[in-house]
Amino acid sequence: MTSQTIQAHREAHAEAPAETILALNNIEVIYDRVILVLKGVSLTVPKGGIVALLGANGAGKTTTLKAISNLLRAERGDVTKGNIRFHGKEVQALSPNELVRRGCIQVMEGRHCFGHLTIEENLLTGAYTRKDGAGAIRTNLEMVYSYFPRLRERRSSQAGYTSGGEQQMCAIGRALMSKPDMILLDEPSMGLAPQLVEEIFEIVKELNSQQGVSFLLAEQNTNVALKYATYGYILEAGRIVLDGAASALRENEDVKEFYLGVAGEGRRSFKSVKHYKRRKRWLA
Amino acid sequence: MLYDIFVDPFVQMAAQPDFLLQVLWEGFVAGILYALIALGFVLIFKASGVFNFAQGIMVVFAALTLVGLHEHGVPAYLALILAIAVMGLLAYTVERVVMRPLVNQPEIILLMATIGMTYFLVGFGEFVFGGEPKSMITEELGLPTGSTAFQIGERGLLILQHIDIAAAVIAIIMVAGLGIFFNKTRIGRALRAVADDHQAALSVGISLNQIWAIVWFAAGIVALATGIMWGARSDVSFALEIIAFKALPVLILGGFTSIPGAIVGGLVIGFGEKIGEIYWGPLVGGGIESWLAYIIALIFLLFRPQGMFGERIIERV
């Protein structure tokens, strides 16, 4: 343990329980120097929390996650305004590799397993940045297998030939191999059967409570996300329009109508649908 | 006519089996060297998707550095180590000056960049070491030079050059070494991960820049080995660059992403060329060795565009 981490732990215990691990302050993202995708997004993730980032297709969920993990630059995107703090330090200038080293890793949308590598090799690539020796990595691998017993069964098959659920588990397991404090999880429910979605979210919850990993998850499946998250943000066209505790969001009439698919009273015609009146969020 | 094409060559083969063996051996050795050059291409193509036009000139440049240093009075083994260091420096420079600024550009731009590199290396090599052909320092490096004649049957004779045997052994060791490196080490695994999905590789914290420098270095070492072997058979000169084009049909046959493919493809082209030249060449007045490989590749393209061992894209249905 370095003196820095000891310091961090001391601070963690000294401060109030609602310490933040990740804070975005008024982030603006531009692709290809012209396309404005995020128009001032601010959010915080408390240490040990599960925060959901909700919204429709193209709202900017993935862009937000990539802005944090710094994978944007590989797609010619740029954070042009605002700042991102991880463990209280600004991180927007760091390479993804350095960020993983510091404990923040992204699980990309669509799983992105290495198809020609076996499941076990996939998991081991997750430990690429670690310097704490083969023994520690081995222990970590066993830990991953204990959370995802199915991966142990498929350890020597090529990831490309495993099922969608197994690939999602593999992607999350691979991220766990880097010993992260925080996982950015992008659309874990995509293309999976409802039962599997529940299974994966259960494991996320366990990892959160047992390993103390914080999660920021981008989801279209509002229902499931709000069931497991503690707090939620709703993104619309690159802006956060609503945020609140998950329980409060579940009860919110507009969220119910737009994202959970349950109308308040009876059927309504499309004519009467108003655009959601955006709550103005001012800079802190 | 049909007899000349379909029957006579085989009659000749059967009449002089020792000569056929000699031809096959020649084909084997040529094939191994083609395979080594193709291997350099495959390494870089797999990890970065760049078709490295400069691979051929890297072979010459590596050999030239080795011989040139020795000419300036550096002992052979030290020159070998220095030549490896120079290839490392080249890899580092290429990653910094070419790959990093051009990342995310269309492939054609990277191809153009490697063509540019080719001419830079030609000019730089001539400037430093001079343009005249040099002979390889085979003996100084401790490589065998003699030849052994084997008696086959009553009057048959098979002559094996020792350097060719050495070339085969070195090539096999090199391929085995690369195989272990790719499958058993952390960096090797990362290399394959990058080849599969470079975005995902980035997301788990693999540094693409580091990986690129490593593959270019590996390709540089393969180039140096190839350069020594080719140099020992002919001279070290920029004319060697042409052999790089022989790697193209090998790649088409073997697939651009497969190491076993490069080896088998190299051997097929090597055997095909020598046998074609000796037994079928006379029908058209000889000289088919220089173009037969391309014809084989062309026919192959019609039936199996991904090559023999080109990685199948795994897609779930």
From TrEMBL, chain A:
SUPFAM superfamilies: P-loop containing nucleoside triphosphate hydrolases (SSF52540). It comes from the Bacteria. The keyword ATP-binding applies. Keywords: Amino-acid transport, ATP-binding, Nucleotide-binding, Transport. GO terms for molecular function: ATP binding; ATP hydrolysis activity; branched-chain amino acid transmembrane transporter activity. Residues 22-262 form the ABC transporter domain. GO terms for biological process: L-amino acid transport. Pfam families: ABC_tran. Belongs to the ABC transporter superfamily. This is Amino acid/amide ABC transporter ATP-binding protein 2 (HAAT family). It comes from Breoghania corrubedonensis.
TrEMBL record, chain B:
Pfam families: BPD_transp_2 (PF02653). GO terms for biological process: amino acid transport. The keyword Cell membrane applies. It is found in: Cell membrane. InterPro entries: ABC_transp_permease, BCAA_transport_permease. One of its GO terms (cellular component) is plasma membrane. It is a multi-pass membrane protein. The chain crosses the membrane at residues 20-43, 50-70, 76-94, 106-129, 165-182, 211-230, 250-271, 283-303. Keywords: Amino-acid transport, Cell membrane, Membrane, Transmembrane, Transmembrane helix, Transport. It comes from the Bacteria. Its main location: membrane. GO terms for molecular function: transmembrane transporter activity. The keyword Membrane applies. Belongs to the binding-protein-dependent transport system permease family. LivHM subfamily. This is Amino acid/amide ABC transporter membrane protein 1 (HAAT family).
